């Protein structure tokens, strides 16, 4: 009997190890897929930061494929601790901006000495990629959950933070009560093979993850999926709270999210066609005002 137990116990350990390596492999593949695009400059040093920085896009051109330029020379600043929102039709290039800031790709015109993105004056293509990514938290449209416990999923990115920190982040992201009411609580398995979370719950997990990471720069890619309006308002409030004192880029699909932004950029076909604060843009009676009127009519 004893002989039987030992191999079974060993198999249990082996199973956990294989499962862990599969998760790590998944992470590695998804990172490698992106990292093939860019490499650290020789002798690159880490980004130097002291609190929320200013982010600057300077004449940024970008094409995924040489024959088709997606961004045609964009310039804007996100001042330290402020939120800039980007709105515009599907395909106008909003998520591409976020991908460039996270340095999944380099700008297409940097070879000519143009097309820079800087963080406190430091060109993100000149400092180490890992230091740029450490400084940025992303709440994506659709959060990937690992096949593991909800606690693992919240701690993902900073596992050493520990349970108490996960609880505090979940509390701030308004998902603690939900987790603690589950029969298995923090040990509930989620992901493909576990409990399926709704779009809103997944976004709250992403917000909790980002709060735990506590980066000085945040990117929010608002979900397009229709959440019910009570949920939507709650998530917006959580995002606003999370972005306080951070330098934030918000890609917004619902204009109600951007009313308080320091600046709103209206993107069309890779160009900024209007920019300003909400009230000024509504008063101007242009593209933004038309989008606002349409959404108001849809919501009421
Ligand atoms: P949405 O509001 O629908 O999310 P978006 O404004 O965020 O759209 P982007 O995702 O930035 O738009 O895409 C801008 C353009 O770039 C689109 O025309 C898209 O087809 C193209 N594009 C996006 N990703 C790639 C890619 N990996 N390879 C080639 N073209 C791409």
From TrEMBL:
Residues passing through the membrane, by range: 1-15
Name under which the protein is recorded: ABC transporter ATP-binding protein/permease
Residues in ABC transporter domain copies: 55-294
Compartment(s) of residence: Cell membrane
């Amino acid at each position: 009997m004893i002989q039987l137990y030992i191999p079974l116990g060993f198999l249990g350990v082996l199973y956990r190890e294989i499962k862990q390596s599969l998760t790590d492999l998944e992470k590695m593949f998804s990172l490698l897929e992106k990292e093939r695009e860019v490499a650290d400059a020789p002798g690159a040093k880490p980004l130097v930061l002291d609190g929320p920085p200013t982010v600057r896009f300077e004449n940024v051109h970008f094409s995924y494929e040489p024959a088709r330029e997606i961004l045609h020379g964009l310039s804007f600043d996100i001042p330290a601790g402020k939120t800039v929102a980007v709105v515009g039709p599907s395909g106008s290039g909003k998520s591409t901006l976020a991908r460039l800031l996270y340095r999944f790709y380099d700008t297409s015109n940097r070879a000519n000495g143009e097309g820079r993105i800087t963080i406190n004056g430091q060109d993100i293509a000149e400092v180490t990629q890992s230091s740029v990514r450490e400084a940025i938290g992303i709440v994506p449209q659709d959060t990937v959950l690992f096949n593991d416990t909800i606690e693992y999923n919240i701690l993902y990115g900073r596992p050493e933070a520990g349970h108490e920190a996960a609880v505090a982040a979940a509390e701030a992201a308004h998902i603690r009560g939900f987790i603690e009411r589950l029969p298995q609580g923090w040990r509930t398995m989620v992901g493909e093979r576990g409990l399926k979370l709704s779009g809103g719950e997944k976004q709250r997990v992403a917000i909790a993850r980002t709060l735990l990471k506590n980066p000085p720069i945040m990117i929010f890619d608002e979900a397009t999926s229709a959440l019910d309006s009570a949920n939507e308002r709650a998530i917006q409030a959580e995002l606003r709270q999370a972005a306080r004192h951070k330098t934030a880029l918000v890609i917004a699909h619902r204009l109600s999210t951007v009313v308080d932004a320091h600046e709103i950029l209206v993107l069309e076909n890779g160009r900024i066609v209007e920019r300003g604060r909400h009230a000024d843009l509504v008063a101007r009676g242009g593209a933004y005002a038309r989008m606002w009127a349409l959404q108001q009519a849809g919501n009421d």
